């Protein structure tokens, strides 16, 4: 058995371990209990607590098993009398300097020190000396730092340094006076702390705790439910602790392969919104006109659904099915998105169904569908962490938008991978990069064409890969040869030498990956930007192998799933083209209707059609376009014209305020279903608490509405919907309810016994050969001029999420952010006589907002950054709605503005 492994003995039992492993690691694999306080398999070991000592035959003294590597034939003894006595001594020493307040300690029942003291029968203290008196330190808004309970195991320091990279805490003093401190004893808020709370989750005792959970109960009183974080596209696994139908705390799920138990601030602490008094509890009917202050009355479900049916039928009969549109939701489950698009296609008879992916990655879909035939991340996180040798991170402030992904990139860099950061804003990850490029905003096509030219000129291409798997090389080469590198240097602002360094590292590395997000996609040239990235991977063969590929990072928790489920105007579920008759017929047969043949309208086109009074009815499930979409004033005018608006949500959002009928739905903690994360991983969601009032899961609402239209959707539960998806969507065929209850699976998963697909395109692309595309550089739509001399760029910030419907109802997150702000280059501020916290008026050709200004050296001159989350100071009042002609994505990343003090 176990060929290639090292054979040795623990307490006389024959065991096998991989070379390089320690005694403790192998013992845990065999469920042999060795106590340890400082050990966490996800962190480096330092043998600090000495509790894991064992005897090794031939060694004079006991050794720390967490640091001692195994070797062939060794004999290890874990429970000799000597060892037990040493451990008792260690425990007594620890406890003699520890408060003995287990009966009132929050951690009781979940404390390793308490557990070991019990197991080793520590009844009396033999050491009654002085105890370390350390005052409790300020960890607000989320963390209690009760260092009198600290046993100096160092796990918190290690997780902060090794995983998160914040380095906010460290040891202070020496010997008996040693304690953990945050930057010269500052309060946590004044340090680099990101409030991810991972220090709490790794603390084996009660020294670090969640402030929110204090006095709400102890571990044995809680129901524990494993589910998925409701925020970003990483899809971290979480353990939710519930008491009396209230979420009391959240912890990272260690066994989840996505995050291995690590979280960011939103995943760890951002659940308070679930029990907000603002939650919608009953359907609402508008009593006032849209021009007046909104007033609603509560109605019952029957009345609400009947009214919706009557109104939609009236509009359909009078103006045709294409006069109705629906916006689905990246926050809802796969099953709900599937039903939403089915409702519009099968029952209303229109393809006018879209969702917010249009506003973040539609250009990725448009670009990659042309070149390689699939638009999802080609590689899973663990390949990036463990195998990529070169990582190009472009247009993605990943530590703010997908923090747990940034932990993985950090790990890769520690392993020796070269990180190349390309971003006009000097983002946090630039600090650990090998090369940082700061191109002028909107010049990506020129930059990536220049890299391609250098790769071809230097013959760093992968000839075999091109020959076997790529089309159009000669035409592309002819085009790129005419590109002037000095012109590229002038336009991008990046010296050719630096571009050359990037080209060489990328092309020559064994496995290079390009990771991007909205800095690439949200442009009128978004599709072109993506095509140029795709060209690089095809030229160099940096795709279709482990650790190498193209990885667009998705924003919201289930934006990948909403796309997969066909909440798109041009695709049926599973990216099956609506215009393809054969595919359409498959759905027609199954749904027993004739389906509309033409593509529907996209998000921004839907609002234009409402403005032009072509669309009369709109149904929005879980989206808030009046904050998230561009040119909000224009949008409000459009919404003012609509005949009938339904909004289905968990709160009365800015958009719901304009609705005729509002339907109360469940949040992700209140229902079952599946989410698909950014690496195509389908994961099961579990219900943790009951919903408030009469709120229902979105799928149930849609099912009941369908019934009103005489469509008997006979789903008893969400799993019946997934079974239907299995039958109609080839990439989800093998992702059955039975399997997803046991494990997560990455699509494509074409059969019930298929293990799922980690790396895409290993053998070939779905469209056969990859296609190199000729892309000319074009300027952004609106550049600064004398009247509007600054560039506005928008984006996300760590403690906030999308349009803040959830995060503004988490008191700690609100406290972290404070007032809405914009960031400006400090030199620009000096020139304008501005100081931090001054209020400025920012004008574009479309509107004006007043906002606090903060100086930042990471922002280039003549650029202003505004987080798009804030409804009151909405950046999207300023943005324009000019679209990328192919993907129809708006250009959120560039518009011209002027600033007044
Ligand atoms: Fe949740 Fe994303 Fe943070 Fe993970 S990284 S905890 S999924 S918000």
Estimate the mean pLDDT confidence: 94
Low-confidence stretches: none
**Distance between the ends:** 75 Å
The shape, in one word, is globular
Query: What percent strand?
Result: 15-25%
Unique ligands: iron/sulfur cluster
Number of helices: 30
Helix content: 25-40%
Spatial order of the strands in the main sheet?
15-14-28-27-26-16-17
Structural class label: alpha/beta
Task: Describe what this molecule looks like in 3D.
- The protein is an alpha/beta fold and 901 residues long.
- The strands form ten sheets. It has a seven-stranded mixed beta sheet with strand order 15-14-28-27-26-16-17, sandwiched between helices. A six-stranded mixed barrel has the order 33-37-34-36-35-38. The chain has a five-stranded mixed beta sheet with strand order 2-1-5-3-4, sandwiched between helices.
- A hairpin with a 3-residue loop joins strand 24 (571-572) and strand 25 (576-577).
- Helix 10 runs parallel beside helix 20 (526-540).
- It is globular and about 85 Å long.
- It starts with 5 loop residues before the first strand and ends with a strand.
- Bound molecules: iron/sulfur cluster.
Briefly summarize what is shown.
Helices cover 30% and strands 18% of the residues.
Salient structural properties:
seven-stranded mixed sheet, six-stranded mixed barrel, 901 residues, 30% helix, binds iron/sulfur cluster, alpha/beta
Which helices and strands occur, and which strands form pairs?
Layout: E1 6-10, E2 13-17, H1 23-29, E3 53-56, E4 63-64, E5 75-77, H2 81-96, H3 112-119, E6 137-139, E7 143-145, H4 155-164, E8 169-172, E9 179-182, H5 198-202, E10 208-210, E11 223-228, E12 237-243, E13 246-252, H6 265-269, E14 284-286, E15 296-298, H7 301-319, E16 324-327, H8 334-348, E17 353-354, H9 357-360, H10 362-371, H11 381-386, E18 390-394, H12 398-401, H13 403-415, E19 418-422, E20 435-437, H14 444-457, H15 463-469, E21 470-471, H16 473-481, H17 485-492, H18 496-508, E22 512-516, H19 518-521, H20 526-540, E23 549-552, H21 559-564, E24 571-572, E25 576-577, H22 581-591, H23 603-611, E26 617-621, H24 625-628, H25 632-641, E27 644-649, E28 661-664, E29 673-676, E30 681-685, H26 698-708, H27 718-728, H28 737-742, E31 745-746, E32 770-771, E33 790-795, H29 811-817, E34 821-825, H30 826-832, E35 839-843, E36 848-856, E37 863-867, E38 895-900
Parallel strand pairs: 1-5, 16-17, 16-26, 18-19, 18-22, 19-20, 21-32, 22-23, 26-27, 27-28, 33-37, 34-36
Antiparallel strand pairs: 1-2, 3-4, 3-5, 6-7, 7-10, 8-9, 11-12, 12-13, 14-15, 14-28, 24-25, 29-30, 30-31, 33-38, 34-37, 35-36, 35-38
Helix pairs in contact: 8-26, 8-27, 10-20, 14-17, 14-18, 14-20, 23-25
Bound molecules: iron/sulfur cluster.
Iron/sulfur cluster binds near residues 263, 264 and 402.
